Amino acid sequence: MSGTIQKPVIDNAKANVDVIATGQEHPEDSPLSVHDLTVAYHRKPVLWDIDLDLPDGKVIGIVGPNGAGKSTLLKACMDLIPRASGRVMVYGKPYKKQRQLVGYVPQRETVDWDFPVSALDVVTMGRYARIGWCWPVTRSHRAAAMTALDRVGLADFAHRQISQLSGGQQQRVFLARALTQEAQLYLMDEPFAAVDAATEQAIVRILHDLRDAGRTVVVVHHDLQTVPTYFDWVAMLNMRLVAVGPVDEVFTQVNLQKTYGGKLTLLDEAAYAVSREMRVKR
Amino acid sequence: MPTIEDILALLTLRDYNTRLVITSTAILGAAAGLIGSFLMLRRRSLMGDALSHATLPGIAIAFLVMVAVGGEGKYLPGLLAGAAIAGLIGVGCVVWITRLSHLRDDTAMGIVLSVFFGLGVALLGVIQNLPGGNKAGLESFIYGKTASMVWSDFVLICGAAVVCMVMCLLFYKELKSLCFDANYARSWGLPTGLLDAMVLALVCVVVVIGLQAVGLILIIALLITPPAAARFWTHRLGMMLVLSVVIGAASGYLGSAVSALFPRMPAGAIIVVVAAILFLVSMLMGPARGVLPRVWRGFVLQHSVLRQHVLRAFYEMNESAHEGELTEVEQTQLSIDRLMAARSWRRTQLLRALRAARREGLVEVASASGGDDENMDGRVYRLTDQGLVVAARNVRNHRLWEMYLIAHADIAPSHVDRDADQVEHVLGDEMVARLEERLRREYPEVLLPKVPISPHVIE
């Protein structure tokens, strides 16, 4: 089902996006609905006109080559970076009003693991939004954090300083922190990066448990081999959205070719040209 | 030279003026240590430097304005207000330059710091050339001048310190979240920009109240050094804050006390020197990340590794002689030369390890054979009962690791000895227990808790 675009003035990048249409714009029940999203770093666009409506209660992978804007897409959805244009709705409302429904797992390298806190401290941060301004952390919150740590198999490491954890354990601490948020929608940025095989399986099991409990999990992912086993849906991204839909429908050779093929140099050049143009105009 | 009497009088704060100065600087140090911790953890330490240097033109301009409107130029609250405003403008400039130019913020800070400071120095020159009296003393803000402090300064410093403390306690959780992972904090709705602004505003407060005591150049040392020193002692944020406050206060107290003892010793400089000494001590001694504890832990490990090697040599050489498990009765006694052949170790190393093992009652000199204290080489050694137990346990752990490595790490039996050596000493009893459990499942035929047979040939 391609060509669901109604706008008269259109760029051709969009014309061959393979979208499984949900019929309406920003459906109420869609956990994450992105419309016309464009993001630019230093005025160079890194995401062009992204349109997607994700279904409820699925594990959804976002794949694409390096620099495709996968992390950027997540961050733009959470207002962590400014959007050049476009709208993002979480369960039918702007992100700002729905924060408590969203749990975030950032990339592991984005923080300083030498920070003087224990694993339990970090996981407890997942409760801070609920605890509210200036209120101290109580025993019940710490207990909730402990439960989450136990769920990721790190109960024995609760009081360890975080630099004394292995990479896979650090990744699971981040996952536990998001779990304590008790969110409806989870956005995870490469939760499998640099973890060992056993940890990866443990994380996948947790993701599937979340789905079975009716949550939606969006995962930025690198390894194409595991896409069919890990995910129900997949979004294929390379600066623009190549395809989004159930894995068995859209995870095809043709779409992979489009996502990873060299075709996009043209788009990249166009992006440079546009940014130059904009600079001249200013 | 000051007498003991002088020193005692000073440390017990008998004199009103010294009491004022010393308590003021101690409280200033505490406040700086507290807010400086968050500045350091947010990796904004240099921002504090830019801010403090940027205060100088504010002081000069405030003076000029107050003279122009016909007031007293050296009205202190006015000067400090000018300093605070200029400091915040400096920070604003850093943010503005990084946003607009995509320069890195250290570059922007360098620019702001030098330009503002230069402007301030130039303006002070202008003020010097103005007609009229009472313009001397503005330079004292650069290096600080504790002698000029009065009661109202003390009150100001106390008030500012209380504000810092209340804010840090009130927003402890929020600041912790901000400093550790700002992006995540923003994702759940923490106004990180506002909190960052609050931290910088509090830093600005500390800088301004510190202008008189330590001056605008050295105040940064009081903001950075105590938290950096505190970090060596602990892995916990709360404890680090407490220690940072204590170290800051101690620097202020000792520094101003020393400077009061010796005429013409500027307090600001001494305070910074004291802080630096405390930092150095922390870096060397701090149990969490200090240098000496690390060296000591390495030494202890090395010692225990060597001991284990000696015991294993005893065990294995006996084992090959008796083809099987050892009992105490049939133990062969070993000379130094035989032991030397067991492993590539230095003679002195082996002798040292043997001496230590004897002290611990694990090894004894077999009395039957010759050799006395002068002639060590002729001696023969054997394991004591206790030594045999410990040696058997060591050998067992070693072989469990070897089996594990062969089965799971794909290491050839001929190479496994060395690799097992590297892990077995580092991992504790808990790991050994897990290892056992696993191996018991995989090799039910290997008889635990007996010592399993070596998976490789022992040379």
Structure overview:
The complex is a heterodimer of chains A (282) and B (459). By secondary structure, chain A is of the alpha/beta class. Chain A is built from twelve helices and eleven strands. Chain A has one domain: 3-Layer(aba) Sandwich (Rossmann fold), CATH 3.40.50. Chain A is 36% helix and 22% strand. In chain A, a hairpin with a 2-residue loop joins β2 and β3. The N terminus of chain A is likely disordered. Chain B is elongated. Chain B has 19 helices and three strands. The mean pLDDT of chain B is 85. The longest helix of chain B has 32 residues. Chain B has a three-stranded antiparallel beta sheet. Chain B has two domains: 285 residues, Orthogonal Bundle (ABC transporter involved in vitamin B12 uptake, BtuC), CATH 1.10.3470; 147 residues, Orthogonal Bundle (Arc Repressor Mutant, subunit A), CATH 1.10.10.10. The chains are: A alpha/beta (282), B mainly alpha (459). Chains A and B meet through α5 of A and α8 and α9 of B.
Name the CATH superfamily classification of chain A: P-loop containing nucleotide triphosphate hydrolases
Mean pLDDT of chain A: 85
Instruction: Give the CA-based shape of chain A.
Output: globular
Identify the most extensive interface between protein chains.
A-B, 31 and 26 residues
Order of strands in the sheet with most strands of chain B:
1-3-2
Helix percent band of chain A: 25-40%
In CATH terms, what is the fold-level topology of chain A?
Rossmann fold
Q: Provide the residue-averaged pLDDT of chain B.
A: 85
